[in-house]
Amino acid sequence: MANSEAHYLAESAGIKPVLLLLFNIFICSGLIVVIVFGVGGHFIENYHKVQNQASYLSVSKWALPSLIGVLMVPGLLYVFILRLCKRLTQRRLDNTTKYIIVVTVTFLISRLIYGFALTYYLENHGYSYCYDYSSSSVMGNNTWLKDPAYCMKNITAYRSELQEWFDQQYADGKVLTLEYVQQETLKMDAAERAKYPGIYD
Amino acid sequence: MSSFEIYQNIQIQQKLNKALQTQERDKLAGSLNSNNHTLIALMPNEYLCLIASIRKSKGYTHQQTLEWIDNIVTSTAGVSASTKSVWSAFKDTWSEYSNTGKTIASYWPVLTDVKVLGVLALEMKRGGDILAKYKVVTYPNRTFIALYNEPSLRKHLTRNVFIASSPQAVNMGVGKLGALNAIKTGAKFTVYFSIGFHALDQLMRDELTWRHFVGGVAVDVVLAAAASGIVWGIVASYVGMAAMVTIGPMLIVVGGGLILTMGFNFLASEYKLVQKMVDLLKEAERRNKKSITTFERQIKKSLTYQKEDPVGFMHTFSGIPYLNQGKSSHTSAARGR
After folding, report:
1. How do residues B90-143 score in pLDDT, each as one tens digit?
2. Cβ–Cβ contact A182 with B under 8 A
3. Does residue B150 sit in helix, strand or coil?
4. Closest CA to B230 of A45, A20, A143
5. Where are the domains of chain A?
6. How far apart are CA A163 and CA A155, in angstroms?
7. Please, what is the angle between helix B248-270 and helix B81-126, to 10°?
8. Residue pair B207/A157 in contact by the 8 Å Cβ criterion
9. Considering only CB atoms, which chain B residues are within 8 Å of A131?
10. Is residue B99 helix, strand or coil?
11. DSSP state of A89
């Protein structure tokens, strides 16, 4: 080729780099699916729940920023596919790297802003944070409730069941009352103790 | 009246006076004692701490104490609004700290990488171009990193060529080894924070057991390890042998690592990995308890059998057939017990 920049870059020989590229392409494709459909789906669902004044929300401060951050993954995929086909040029690599830099910086800044904005937005819509329902995992979801009285104590043993129950009540369009929530909590507590006798003594 | 009688009367009178004085003094001391009050001035939060420590010394758990005070404060009509607000603030302290703590914990490993990235970007900017490139040059037995930038203006990387494994290049996050160093540091921080956060959570929530601690930390560690390994693979494939923007590998570590962790975390939450882990531990404990109970029952049974029929017991113990018919019926009866 006449232009020196259009020369394809030399790739490492052997099967190992090719296998690593294939693995990376698989992971990146999977990551796009998980973030766009999974996290994005949850984000939209939560938005509708807030609009409909749902009594229970399980939200992540990483949801919207990760939808921005996932834009870097097609850049990575592009380079991997070009490397696999031995069609990567220095110019293409540089341009993709610049694109990834812009996306990553935006992603990091958006996380800082979104964290504060989310808290402000939910509090403005009458929600309060419930520590007992929130996940203990470092990047786990936080739970926000319309009525702070629904935030029951000592429910960690059956927290996921209770969260599913809240979601089910919302899906069924049922209006919750404190007595109803308390009753369900007691029922779940009794079921848990019956399932694992001796564990909670 | 004789002089002796007069003397006796005086003595009695004096003793009577003395007794009356003692009685009055005792009465006065008693009256003073009953009106003696010790006043200690406490701030509202000090008072709550005092109550909590008294309840704790009586054997009540943190949760029981909280519920007890909560019940009194909310249901008593005479409690002032200011007391209620102080109590509410006291009660919510950990909840707020947990939310902030979780945010810091999730962001800290990133911040350490961002710090390295910031220093490197500043260094490149000092050299003339923030997007300056580097290239890996390989000679037999040794790999070098050549930076395409003005070295005299830089503060830390004051040369243009470094050995790839030199501490200067690695600590500044230059090249693949620099990225690997950042990944390792990030993974370590995630594990330390996860253990610290779960331990603190364990102390604050009475209903949590060791199973929640083990389950939560195990899932966090597995996710951090998986994300670190995959990010390393991505950086290695992306960088290759080409000339690369110096801050590129570090940015991929930061951005890619976060996105991967978010994806893994979403899957872990969707498939309830922590809950499943906790349930497995509970189930294992339940089975162990059941096995121990059965084992104890069998030992008791064997000891009874050994007392009643020592010969039969030895036959059963050594697996030799027991042919004594009379004893055999007895043996089966004993076994059935």
Report:
1. 666 655 555 566 556 555 666 677 777 777 777 777 777 777 777 777 777 777
2. no
3. coil
4. A20
5. 4-126
6. 10
7. 140
8. yes
9. 94-95, 98-99
10. helix
11. B
DSSP E strands: which ranges in B251-311? Answer: none
Distance from CA of A120 to the nearest CA of B (A): 14
Average pLDDT, chain A: 87
User: A163-197 pLDDT, tens per residue?
Assistant: 889 888 888 888 888 888 888 888 988 888 887 77
∠ CA B62-B65-B67, rounded to 5°: 110
Q: Which residue of A has its CA nearest to B254?
A: A104
Query: Which one of A24, A142, A155 has the shortest CB-CB distance to B237?
Result: A24
Instruction: Supply the DSSP symbol for A36.
Output: I
How far apart are the C-alpha atoms of A176 and A182, rounded to whole Å?
Answer: 10
Interchain contact A10–B (C-beta under 8 A) = yes
Q: How far is CA B336 from CA B316, B332, B333, in A?
A: 14, 6, 5
pTM of the predicted structure, to 2 decimals = 0.68
- A38 CB near a chain B CB, below 8 Å? yes
How many whole angstroms separate alpha carbon B14 and alpha carbon B181?
98
Inter-axis angle of helices B325-336 and B310-318, nearest 10: 80
> Is A139–B262 a contact, with Cβ atoms under 8 angstroms apart?
yes
8 Å CB contact of A135 and B234: no
Give how far A147 is from chain B: nearest CA, Å. Answer: 15
Let me know: does B42 contact B50? Beta carbons within 8 Å. Answer: yes
Which residues of chain B have a CB within 8 Å of the CB of A35?
259, 262-263, 266
Long-range contact set of residues B307-313: C-beta below 8 Å, sequence gap at least 24:
B308/B334, B309/B334
Q: Which residue of A has its CA nearest to B96?
A: A131
Q: Is B84 helix (H, G, I), strand (E, B) or coil?
A: helix
Among candidates A24, A66, A76 on the partner chain, residue whose Cβ is nearest the Cβ of B262 = A66
What letter represents residue B181's amino acid? Answer: N
Using a 10 angstrom Cβ sphere, with 0-12 exposed, 13-18 middle and 19 or more buried, the burial of residue A105 is middle
- How many contacts, defined by CB atoms under 8 Å, are there between A and B? 178
CB A13 within 8 A of CB A69: no
* Smallest Cα distance from B163 to chain A, Å: 21
pLDDT of res. B336: 44
The order of strands in the sheet holding A142-145 is A56-59, A142-145, A128-130
To the nearest whole Å, the CA of B207 is away from the closest chain A CA by 5
Interface test with A, best of B100, B259, B275 (most A CBs within 10 A): B259
For residue A59, give the chain B residue with the closest CA. Answer: B266
Measuring CA to CA, which residue among B152, B162, B161, B156 is closest to residue B127?
Answer: B152
Closest CA of chain B from A114, distance in Å: 12
Counting every residue written for chain A, the total comes to 201
Joined together, the tokens standing for residue A145 give 């409730």
Q: What are A120-134's pLDDT values in tens digits? A: 999 999 998 888 888
